């Protein structure tokens, strides 16, 4: 009899390891975060015969600590997303360990919570920990007809969630990096477009036509400046203070082949 019991326990352990390996293999093959979370919930519902399951990610927004991302179950598409109540999520976030509730209506730790006529009679809420921080919660519920989760199922959920959390965290980091790279590329494009626009405005502002003056002397100066702008030779502009030497120099620069290079004023 003991040998039969040991053999049965060994077989059960092997089946559990196979289940864990199968789930993690599917999770590792996924790349998109929502797909990863859907796999986790679907597999855990299958392994534990849960009624429903949900993953809530910890939000960086302090006004709302949890955000419902993935929900699975018969009624998941018919109602608003289920989110672990503040008492349940607060307990898990505070204690950083799995929460097992056999009868929500009769658990003194969470007075005031209702199973909604037995729909959420039994609950498992497991923290998803990666790099020492809780990144989300995986919750499974059973209705009254299914009975509470047993210890083997609770242990299995803890293992799968613990191993999957790191994979999910890496996927979230990669998606965040991709978003930041996209924003950086957009900023660079806008900066380049703005640079082109400003260069165009500078060229327009410092065109010879925009220098106001009707005297023959000024017209001769502008005519000469327009001619030398096309040459790549040193040029000296002389004249008394306040006669517009720098204005002419800028006009020559922005109408020359050096227009895209810095214009440096040195007294």
What would you say this structure looks like, in words?
By secondary structure, the protein is α+β, with helices and mostly antiparallel strands. The protein is 49% helix and 14% strand. It is built from 6 helices and 5 strands. The protein has a 5-stranded antiparallel beta sheet with strand order 2-1-5-4-3, with helices on both faces. Strand 1 and strand 2 form a beta hairpin. The N and C termini lie far apart (103 Å). About 3% of the residues have low confidence.
Topology:
Blueprint: H1 2-29, H2 33-48, E1 52-58, E2 66-73, H3 86-95, E3 99-101, E4 122-130, E5 133-142, H4 151-205, H5 216-228, H6 245-254
Antiparallel strand pairs: 1-2, 1-5, 3-4, 4-5
What fraction, in percent, of the residue positions are helical? 40-55%
Q: Termini, distance in Å?
A: 103 Å
Secondary-structure-based class equals: alpha+beta
Any low-confidence stretches, pLDDT <50, length ≥5?
76-82
What does the overall shape look like?
rod-shaped
| Average pLDDT level | 79
The SSE string, one letter per element, is: HHEEHEEEHHH
The helix count comes to: 6
Largest sheet: 5 strands, antiparallel
The share of residues in extended strands comes to 5-15%
Main-sheet strand order equals: 2-1-5-4-3
Number of strands: 5
- Radius of gyration, rounded? 35 Å
